[in-house]
Amino acid sequence: MITKTRICIVGAGPVGALMSILLARRGIEVSVFECRPDMRRVDIPAGRSINLALANRGINALEKVGLMNTISEYLIPMRGRMIHDEAGNTSLQAYGNKPQEVIFSASRGELNKTLLNAAESAGVRVEFDLRCEQLDLAGKKIVLVDERNGKVRETNYDLIIGADGAGSAVRKAISALTGGDVSEDILGHGYKELTIPAGPNGEFLLDRNALHIWPRGGYMLIALPNPDGSFTATLFLPNEGEESFASLQSNESVEAFFDLRFSDVVPLVADLTGNFLKNPTGMLGTIRCFPWRYRGDALLIGDAAHAIVPFHGQGMNAGFEDCVALDGCLDRHGADWRNVFAEFEAERKPNAEAIADMALENYVEMRDSVRDPKFLLKKELAWKLEELYPESFIPRYSMVMFHQVPYAEAYRRGKLQAAVLEELTDSANSIDDIDFAQAKRLIEERIL
Ligand SMILES: Cc1cc2nc3c(=O)[nH]c(=O)nc-3n(C[C@H](O)[C@H](O)[C@H](O)COP(=O)(O)OP(=O)(O)OC[C@H]3O[C@@H](n4cnc5c(N)ncnc54)[C@H](O)[C@@H]3O)c2cc1C
Fold it and tell me: Which atom of ligand 1 is closest in space to residue 284's alpha carbon?
C-alpha cells in the first residue's frame, strides 16, 4: 500500500476515472477535478462520439477493476464490417477468424458513468465544474476555476496526473517547463454525427451486430448500434474541396450529396438536412509529445499524452491500456514515482506512436481498401495463415483488436506480414492460386 501520497488527476473522462480506481485501490488518496458538470446528474452533450468500439485491451482493463459484468449489460457485439456499396448492396466482412473475435459498441456516457460510480465507491473524491486553469509544477500547486461562478481555488498535491484529453492543460505545463516537443497534426478531414432512429417497434433498421460502413474512396459514413435500437452514424469527410463540409452548407447541397452518395441512408436518418446543418463538425488529429512527465511529480495518460484519429477504434482502448501499464509499474517500483513514471513513459511512448500511425493507415482501409478484391484476398489468406501458423502469423487487425501484443510489435510484425501477403498474392486471383509451400518458407525466413 502506498498511503502517504495525495494524487490529483485532472479530467474525469474514461481514462482519468479508470486510473483513479486503480490508484484508490492501493490506498492512495485520490482527487479528480473535472471541468464539466457531473454527467450522472446533468444531461450534457457527449461532445465526442456517442458510442465507441471497445476491444480486447479496453476489456482487459475493465476486467481488472471488476466492471466488465456491469458494462456488458449495455454492450452490443459487432462481428464485422457491413459494407454498403453505392448501389445499396451489402456484404459482411468479419473482423476475425474465430467466433469470439468481435468488438463491442459501447455507450460513451454509460461507460463513463459506471467508471465514476466505481471511483467514488473506491474512495476517490471527484469534483466537477472545476477547470485546471494553471499549474505550478515546481511548487506542486494547481489553480482551479469553478465554471459555475468563476471562483478561483488553489490546491496542493504530491503528484499530478493529466488525463485531461487532447487539449490537456497538464501537457502544456509539462512542455513549458521541460521545453518538450509537442506536435498537433490536424487531419484535413472532420466528422459529423447523425442519428438513425429505431423502427416503429424499437427494432434495429440495419443489422444490429455489425459496424456499418459506406466507403466512398475519399471519405465514408459509418454507423454503430445503440441498445435502444438506434444507430449513431458518423460522416468523415474532407473539410475543404468539392465534396466537403465547406461545400455542404445548404439544404439543397446536403440533400443532393446524400442522394448521390448515400441514397440508401437518406430514408433512415432523422431529419437529415436539419441535423446535418445543426450538428457540429468535429476536428480530428494526432497529438504526439515528449516528455510525458515532469520528474516523478507529473505524468500524462490517455489522450492528453497521445490523441489519435479514431479509425482503428483504439483511442480509449489505448488509454485504458495506459492505466493497466501504470498499475504494473507501481507493482514493480512501489512509491518510487520517478522510476514508475520513467518506466511507464519508456514502455508506452513507442506503443502510442505505433497506434497513432496504424490509426491513420486504417482510414484508407475503411474508406477505400475494403472495396478492393485484392484486399479481400489478402484478408482471406491472412486468416488461412493464422490457422496454419498460429504462433507466427496473426493478422495485424487481430493483433490490435483481439490480442494485447504491444502496438509497436503489432506494427512491426504487420509490416513484415504485409510484404509476405503482397508477394504471395501478386499473381493470384483466389486462394486456390496461392503457393502454400512458398508461404511456409516466407514466414520461416521473414517473420519467425
Ligand atoms: C469521433 C470519435 C470516435 C471515437 N471512437 C473511438 C472508438 O471507437 N474506440 C476508442 O477506443 N476510442 C475512440 N475514440 C477516442 C476516444 O474518444 C478517446 O481516446 C478517449 O475519450 C480518451 O479518453 P481520455 O479520458 O484520455 O480523454 P477525454 O475523453 O477527452 O476526457 C478528458 C476529460 O478531461 C476534462 N478536461 C479537459 N480539460 C480539463 C481541464 N483543464 N480541467 C479539468 N478537466 C478537464 C474533459 O472535460 C474530459 O472529461 C473516438 C474519438 C472520436 C473523436
Answer: 53
pLDDT digits (tens, 9 = 90+) for 176-232: 999 999 999 999 999 999 999 999 999 999 999 999 999 999 999 999 999 999 999
Distance CA 2, CA 330 (A): 9
- Residue 267: which region, alpha, beta or left (left: phi > 0; alpha: psi -120 to 50)? alpha
C-beta of 101 in contact with ligand 1 (< 6 A): no
Closest atom of ligand 1 to 234 CA is 1
- The pTM for the full model equals 0.97
Ligand 1 pocket, residue 300 CB under 6 Å: no
- Cα-Cα-Cα-Cα dihedral of 249, 255, 256, 261, to 10°? 110
CA-closest candidate to residue 135, choices 33, 214, 253: 33
Q: Which of 164, 222, 287, 299 to mutate to test the pocket of ligand 1 (most atoms within 8 A of CB)?
A: 164
CA neighbor of 147 nearest in space, from 239, 14, 36, 235? 36
Q: Where are the alpha helices (DSSP H) in 301-406?
A: 303-306, 315-333, 337-367, 373-388, 396-402
